Every structure is written in C-alpha cells, then in structure tokens.
Amino acid sequence: MTRPWESLANEHILGIAPYEPGKPIEELERELGITNAIKLASNENPLPPSDRVQRAIIAALNTVNRYPDGSGFYLRQALAKKHGVAPEQVILGNGSNELIELLVRTFLRPGDEAIVPHPSFVVYPMIVQAAGGIRVMVMLKDYRLDLEAMARAITPLTKVIFIANPNNPTATIVTADEVDAFMARVPETVIVVFDEAYVEFAQGPDFPDTLAYVKQGRKVIVLRTFSKAASLAGLRVGYAIADADATALMNRIRQPFNVNSLAQAAALAALEDEAHVLECVRMIEAGRHFLYEEFRALGLSYVPSRANFILVDVGRNATEIYQKLLHEGVIVRPMTSFGMESTLRITVGTPEENRRLVRALRTVLGATAR
Fold first, then answer.
1. Mean pLDDT value across residues 277-290
2. Whole-prediction pTM value?
3. Which range of residues forms the domain containing residue 163?
C-alpha cells in the first residue's frame, strides 16, 4: 500500500494552514473582467521606488548572471553606520519574514515556549509550531499589546517573545515607558524580538529605542524591512540587528545568496534617499487623517493608527463587505480569521486611491456618495 504524503511529513507542520496573502490586482481583474483595480490589502507602499532606486536596479541588471554578494557586505556596512552598530551585528534576509524563521530555527528547541501576542503577525505562531515550539498566545487589550500579561506569561520554558511594534493588524504601538517596564521583568534566558516593519510611520517621542537594548547587550533582536516605507516589497529585503554572537549563530543556517543582487542594490540606494521615505511618510500621515474624517462621516469606528494601515469596524459582516468592495475594484483585507467579524484592515493609499475607497464604501454600505 502506498503511504500518504502526510505520513512522511514533519508532524509539527500538519496543523498549519498555508498563509493566504492579499488578493493580487491581476487576479481580481481576471476574475471579474475589470480594469484599474486598486489594492489596499497588504500594507504596501502605494508609491513606486524613487528614481534613484530605480536607476540602481537598472544598473544592477548587468550583474545578474553572477550570484549576489553572499554576505551583503556593502548593505550591511551602510546599515551598521546608519544604526550605530558593528557590521557583524547586522544580518540580511529575504524580507524580515525569513529572519523570523531563521531566529526561530536557531534558538527555539522543541518544547520551548514562545510568547506571541494575538492578534498579531500570523507568521510568528506558524514558524514556532513548525519548529516544534509551544505557542503561548496572549490576547491584546484595547487593540494594543498587553505587555503586563505577556510578562506574567513568562515561565522557565520561555525562550522567545515576539513584539510587533507597530502591531499588525491593529496599527497600535507600545510606548517607550511600557517597553522599559516590560524589559525590566524579562530574564536573561529569554530573547525578545522587536518586529518594527512599520517603524518609519510610528516615529515620535513615545516610540521606544529598541536598538538601545541591543547596544546594552540585552538578548534582543530588532527586525526591520525595506518593504514598507522604502517601496521595495517586491524585492524582499529585510534585516535584523542583534549581538554579533546571535547573528553569527543565525548565519550558520542562513541560505547562501538569500538576498538577490537587485534587492541589495535597491536597498543601498534607498538608504541614501531619505527624501523618498519622508515623502511617503507624510503622504501616509495625511491619508490617515483624510480617512479618519471619512470613516467618521460614514459612522464607522476605527483604531487610530501609527502605521500605514487602519483597522475599521464596518458594523456588519466584514467578508460580505470585502466581497462587495471587490466588485467595485477595491481590494482590502477582512479580519474574520482573527475573530473580528465586522472588521477590515485597510492600507492607506495615494490620495486618489483613498478617495476611490471612500466612494466604494459609500456604495456598498448604502450611503449617498459625495
């Protein structure tokens, strides 16, 4: 008798559902026979990379017959200079997603516990489960990470704690004072991972300087990405900053040539083009305030955002509204998989995309268009 494939699989992955990304624009246009659809589902930057970055990508095309720099030397040097750390403390990844998997595979043994906020980035519990770890889920409080409850959840088995700041999907932050109080309760045997994918949109005096913990020698890993503010989601490049001993261990299992030549060239150019990031951040901030006003006019409640997306309660079944918005050519993300049955996560787009979203919402919610 032929053995089923599942009998040969790693038992830890059998209970994991595949990740479902936001619907691509091309797929929606094929399905409905429409054109000019917009996607506000995946927290992407609505602006393309800057001219400077695009020129760097074009120049790098001449080298794609060769493997990329396996260590990402120049990009790591530039990141180290930007953040005031040694190059050995920087490790590159094929997006920060790869680095989440790398750090879990490096430090989490089967039976170790990982504290994961919920709802938060779905990759954390997936990777922990795949590694044979125990997921300790801690519910959010008022849409924010409950650091007090997360501190209480620490046990002798705890190895890793994930803190998404700003959090996805709620776009809320935990403050510097809250993080300081939390870190004072974390033992030396526990690694705290600060995932700061949306950090550029959250800056302010209340936002924690987590790199200070790395520089103090704490067991902290800080994750950043070029996917959001730098407009490079399609090239997949992120990085982690930690103690050099930690990155050396992670490098033992990092895939060779994991960050491609175009991504390295683009990221290096993006670091030198702060004006583009500032333009994007300002546009997103203005877009947030525009959408707040429009949501209030529609009678919709929302969670004030410190990221490039907003959590909105539409007051009825979110999947139904999502499907109706698709027929208006607008892709958003229903949050029903997180148990938020009437909630959508909506990426802040360009001014025109935001206006189109509002018109579509008015149509599907039965309101009168302005």
1. 97
2. 0.95
3. 52-273
